[in-house]
Amino acid sequence: MTKTASRILAGLIVSSAMASPAMAQSSGDIIPDSYICVFNAKAVNKGAVVSEAKRAANAAGRQVGHVYTSTIRGFSTHMNAKAVAQMQARNPSIKYCEADRVIALGPVRIAKGKPGGGSSAPAQTTPWGIDRVNGGAAGSYATAWVIDSGIDGSHPDLNVDANRSASFLPRDSSWDDQNGHGTHVAGTIAALDNAIGVIGVAPGAPVVAVRVLDRRGSGSYSGVIAGVDYVGANGKAGDVANMSLGGPTDTALNEAVIAAASKGVRFTLAAGNESDNAANHSPASANGANVYTVSAFAQGDTWASFSNYGNPPIDYAEPGVSITSTYKDEGYATLSGTSMAAPHLAGILLLGSVRSGGTVSGDPAGPADTIGIH
């Protein structure tokens, strides 16, 4: 691959010139001896999940990792396949166990604006995508939960709710963004109208960091489900939750998203960038009330060739090419991908109802995708 070539990664398009050395694992790779187990909801009530998870894992000589109580009812654990099979055979309350997998963005930066560290922030501009969806109106907004790599808590262009922000990474309790991706997503949703940097679709809306990806943009399905479960427990009807991440289809992850959304939190999901049917990816393939999967287009309402497609599960197309937004270290960056499209819809949902702003032709698997605007 030449320096001018580009790679398509889980949530965005990345110049290979910015790529770091190959990671040991890629998105979708099975994590050895790591499993997600889900109880039959009729057999284990919500209040008993923690004790039942400990009992099941301890009987196999292992410990519980994450426990899920507010969406699916289940837990993660580290044990080999034989031990998992034995645990299931002894415990009829367990509906199924599945292998945990890596979920990874890869490198995220293609262009960076003002770096952190003292130089003054640029004067405010309105990114083309914000104009296209009729965003930027003043208002009092519900919360945006950003299930991602964290958010830069000191960024002057964001209203970060530190009290509710949390990390679901092992051995790292900080929710602060060390990657940049989550901060970029948060800015598209809600960057402040404050004369610097950029403006978001729903400017000033409180953004909560739900950190499930590390500084490399890597995490696990079990950790992502823990983040979704956290939103299911703490989100309110009318809030939005954005998931600009993805990998192969996964039953537990999709079920968790659908369950959290059934409580009234609207979930916006990146379709993915594999030029593939979104039905082959999670959480993009999740379908249910308050769940929206988003494809990407470029200026001129041109289909983004990298975008996943298929209607269903895709509900709307949003701007996703050359999107400028906030970035880590109090900076700004221009990124491309369905990761950038989904937060446009999240902001629109905070503004109110979504209406049609036309269509984007080019979806290889179905009718033209509807452009969602305010």
Automatic annotation (TrEMBL):
Whether Protease counts among this entry's keywords is yes
Signal sequence bounds: 1-24
Alphabetized UniProt keyword annotations:
Hydrolase, Protease, Serine protease, Signal
**What does UniProt give as GO cellular component?**
extracellular space
One GO MF term attached to the UniProt entry: serine-type endopeptidase activity
Gene Ontology biological process terms from the UniProt entry? proteolysis
What PANTHER family is this protein classified in?
A: CEREVISIN-RELATED, PEPTIDASE S8
To which protein family does this belong? Belongs to the peptidase S8 family.
The name on file for this protein is S8 family serine peptidase
